[in-house]
Write a structure and sequence with these properties.
mainly alpha; 232 residues; elongated
Length: 232
């Protein structure tokens, strides 16, 4: 159900729309930053036959999996933080719209940035673990891209919903912090608007950390299975 409230106009309306849109972009870049390279990371090596060479090396398979996971996470995190840096840059611009977005201008505060980063890091790790698991399970790049297409749809739905949920009664729903991806996007929006709820932030952080650990363990487990690694 939509909430009844005074509608902002002019620059205030544009600022509200931008702050609602930014978490959507940050979540998408967290996912698609790794999406663009993950198919080649394991499935591509299977297809080229170069994975076997890596597997016969004395390096433990768990270390190989973690190395690929960390590389993927770094790319995804760099992609996501580019959005955050863009927010800071906008806040520093001497234009009226920036002051509408950030009260007093000057970009986001240290506490806001900390909340965003503490939400963003486990989200990136969760996405990276999930993406790497899909690439590891797939026989080749074509199959990996097929699975990734369906996975991107699962990520897109809550990311898109985050743009509008702040204007509905669902924004105050007690189950919202327990919905993966949507909870992170909502916390990001609240942090950017300097309206952070500590309970929602804590629940979202713990759930996303748990999902991130699950994604990492799944990737490592798949990497230790011959039946999965040698699927052709």
């Amino acid at each position: 159900r939509m909430k009844e409230e005074a509608a902002p106009t002019g620059q205030a309306a544009a600022a509200t729309w931008l702050v609602s849109f930014l978490p959507y972009l940050i979540v998408l870049w967290s996912f698609y930053g790794g999406f663009s390279i993950v198919a080649d990371l394991v499935a591509g090596e299977k297809e080229r036959g170069s994975l076997e060479t890596l597997l016969v090396s004395p390096i433990p398979r768990s270390s190989i999996a973690i190395g690929k996971f960390l590389a993927l996470s770094c790319v995804a995190f760099a992609s996501a933080t580019s959005a955050l840096l863009g927010v800071v840059a906008i806040g520093l611009l001497p234009i009226p719209a920036a002051k509408q977005i950030f009260e007093g201008g000057g970009g986001i505060t240290v506490l806001q940035a900390a909340a965003v980063l503490l939400t963003l890091v486990p989200l990136v790790l969760f996405f990276s673990g999930l993406l790497l698991a899909v690439s590891t399970f797939s026989r080749n790049m074509r199959e990996a891209n097929g699975y990734l297409g369906w996975l991107s749809f699962v990520v897109l739905v809550p990311a898109i919903a985050s743009q509008f949920i702040g204007f509905t009664d669902l924004a105050s729903s007690p189950i919202l912090p327990f919905i993966p991806i949507l909870n992170s996007a909502t916390v990001l929006r609240d942090a950017l608007m300097d309206n952070l709820d500590l309970y929602r932030f804590a629940v979202t952080f713990l759930i996303t950390v748990g999902l991130a650990i699950g994604g990492i363990l799944l990737s490592v487990r798949l990497f230790q299975k011959e039946s999965v690694l040698l699927r052709m």
